[in-house]
Specification:
alpha+beta; 4-stranded antiparallel beta sheet; YciI family protein; YCII; Dimeric_a/b-barrel
Length: 146
């Protein structure tokens, strides 16, 4: 089962700030622990919303709005993807998140299970499933090229 740990943004991140050396070291140690356990799939930080954009479907077309976006507590600063045997195991890894990377009381990470092809039922036909798998193979090739 794959899960995404969603890391919320903060006002400091939205102002272009980055972590401390200690936060980087703690996060790297956590990622290495997950890697050694065979559960770490991927993880990345994101630029602040000032460098992003949103697309909203309005009146039959996409309308683009450039960042920054005001509600930092609703923004994403990064993510980690893990592959574990259960939701309970995912929660155990979540509880090991470095405390130094939780900037304030009430800071909350979000855990969401990633949908698999089987989760879509009959709407995802065998032909669509096959194409989906081909796309994943191509995407892995692209990622390998860097």
């Amino acid at each position: 089962m794959r899960f995404m740990i969603i890391v919320p943004s903060t006002p400091v991140i939205e102002q272009g700030g980055t972590g401390t050396q200690q936060q980087y070291a703690d996060m790297q140690a956590h990622n290495e622990e997950m890697l050694k356990a065979g559960v770490f799939v991927d993880g990345e930080g994101l630029h602040p919303s000032s460098r992003g954009a949103r697309a909203a479907w309005q009146d039959g077309e996409w309308v683009i709005s450039d960042g920054p976006f005001t509600e930092s507590k609703e923004l994403v600063a990064g993510f980690t993807i893990i592959d574990v045997s259960s939701r309970e195991e995912a929660l155990e890894w979540l509880k090991k998140w470095p405390v130094s990377c939780a900037p304030e009381p009430g800071y909350a990470l979000e855990l969401r299970q990633i949908l698999r092809a089987e989760d879509f039922g009959d709407e995802l036909t065998p032909e669509l499933r096959e194409r989906e798998e081909q796309m994943r193979v191509e995407a892995a090739r692209n990622a390998a090229r860097g």
